[in-house]
């Protein structure tokens, strides 16, 4: 499945299987994490009554999930999607944690 | 991935589609049937006659509850929607949970009289199977269906990207060309109803969003119950005062509710602590009264019948959610649009079925030895037959059991449902054991066709509301149901006949090719 970018040699079966597993992991775990954190962030910080903010986050979350899942399989390398998903998720998770438990905002 | 975006999307589409295809077939079948949930329930309760009358139904139910359940903890009255006739009411005794609701349930017709109908869950069972499945804990089922829906969303998007010429596929259906025909069929059923598929998948996820995506609630609220109260209103039970006060006439409250809703009918009446001075009557607008399916709940003082202050209007996000759920369930849809929903649902079912068959059809030529396929190939092949022919036969068995099971059987609704799975299991067994594959297809499809053909016949023999009587009296609900059963029988028989003749077609073509 993966193209061996550097050498151009035909990929082995094991490499192909690992590549699919990595992409599946990024799509499922990364996709859900991004969707969940996005929903939580919108619920917390959208300037509207909180029940509305929670609902907005929920309604949008499935689109976020689908976006990450598609990117995980469309991108040339799974690692790249994992990087960008983490770059979105980690700061957001940190900010949410501080907002909820650290007394900020 | 290898060979760029389109190839990787094709790969994703194939495998995501295959893994969840069988579950999606069940979800599509039962969901499509659920667009006629009320009609199915009416057919499955032939003892209920007459026309719908919300007020008389409510009055009849209250009269019965006052007589037989005066000391109950709460009363619930589910009024018939525009396509239903019977009112369903039940009460809860002290200490019981909602799980016991069927212990104290009864039916009232449009005249306000209690009806003794056969015990059945009717179309509601199929509707619940659409997302609760059966024999498995409800939570697991909903997660499995949610996963399938998420896969389907990804499959649809990747399917669209995979497409080279989506407009041309709109007009392309080549018959009798093996794999190419399956691909055309798959494309046609998918592309023709693509807006529907996209809408139904996304809104389906939304119907259970607070279960799949509860993290916003956790981020903004201390307790989930506060969120549910904000979002959907509270169902607080008032404390008993101990003073008995009779209930004001329900008809007056229904009239006030109708006036508040510009003529829309109520769909549900909930009365906690009935008969007490503190009792209230909560009347919720019918779910089929608008595209926003989550109707407003009005609260009345049970003793005076006076309406309390109306709840504040919903914000745009909750209104959007209500419309999305409404679009999914299609309860608002008038008859023509309802048939369109039904056809789109059938197209979705066909899309899943053709996609599953396409997987094997595409790989058959590439087999090293076509007579002895590898295990995975055989498994997919057999599971396809078991599902595509088995589930429809199971549904026919569900309807047959409704007519054939004696009325006195303990847990009759349960046995109706078991019949569905017994029928399905029997076909699955044939599908797995019969050789060759072609024979398994022909036999299972024929059995399924026979099952649907039997439904109107058995109906004619066991009730006084057979097809000819229904047609004579202009009872379109019963007549349409019976005719649709014949139509499905014809469709499945056609399928069996096509498979039966397939080899000849190939041979003829080969001969032609040889001549050319």
Automatic annotation (TrEMBL), chain A:
Keywords: Membrane, Transmembrane, Transmembrane helix. The keyword Membrane applies. The chain crosses the membrane at residues 20-41, 53-75, 81-99. This is Iron transporter.
TrEMBL record, chain B:
It comes from Luteibacter yeojuensis. Keywords: Membrane, Transmembrane, Transmembrane helix. The chain crosses the membrane at residues 12-36, 140-161, 182-205, 339-359, 379-401, 413-433, 440-458, 478-497. Signal peptide: none annotated. This is Peptidase. InterPro entries: PepSY-ass_TM. The keyword Secreted does not apply.
